[in-house]
Design brief:
Blueprint (H helix, E strand, L loop, with lengths): L3 H7 L17 E4 L2 E4 L5 E2 L2 E2 L11 H23 L5 E12 L7 H16 L6 E7 L8 E9 L2
Parallel strand pairs: 5-6
Antiparallel strand pairs: 1-2, 2-7, 3-4, 5-7
Helix pairs in contact: 2-3
């Protein structure tokens, strides 16, 4: 069975550097056997991948890709906290926020970008509970923000 990082590599991905906080918080916190990530934006190489409202300036397809980037950034924050992604016992909960045009109701499809990536990377351990919420605006005018809670083995 392949490791989490091998599965990422098979997807053409690597764990990026942790995105530095844009305000007064830390990227992730461990409490007992759980790690809680802060909301992750679709940052890639230090730049926000896109801005605007989904259903207006941002297509649902692009937003789904941005949600996957958010999940990858959450994986980076988890790895920084744990040191080894093999210590993740399971992804417990994902919360996705989608900056939405008032008429847009496809938030679950957008957040599937994060959920599908976590499933591919963690396998059965990546199956999780989830919320997908439409909001008026997100930090830096990001179209998507994702936070993740994982349980840690042992």
């Amino acid at each position: 069975m392949s490791t989490v990082e091998e599965r990422l590599s098979e997807l053409g991905l690597t764990v990026p550097d942790v995105v530095p906080p844009v305000a007064a918080y830390v990227p992730a916190v461990r409490d007992g056997n759980h790690i809680y990530t802060s909301g992750q934006l679709p940052m890639l190489d230090g730049a926000l991948q896109g801005t605007g409202k989904v259903g207006a300036e941002v297509s649902p397809e692009d937003a789904k890709g941005y949600a996957a980037t958010c999940a990858l950034n959450a994986i980076a924050a988890i790895k920084a906290e744990l040191g080894d992604l093999e210590k993740v016992a399971r992804v417990v909960k994902v919360v996705g926020f989608v900056a939405s045009d008032p008429s847009f109701t496809g938030q679950p499809g957008v957040v599937n970008g994060a959920s599908e990536l976590l499933g591919k990377v963690f396998g059965d351990k990546g199956v999780h509970a989830r919320s997908a919420v439409g909001v008026a605006a997100l930090p830096l005018d990001a179209p998507v923000e994702v936070e993740v809670v994982v349980a840690v083995a042992g």
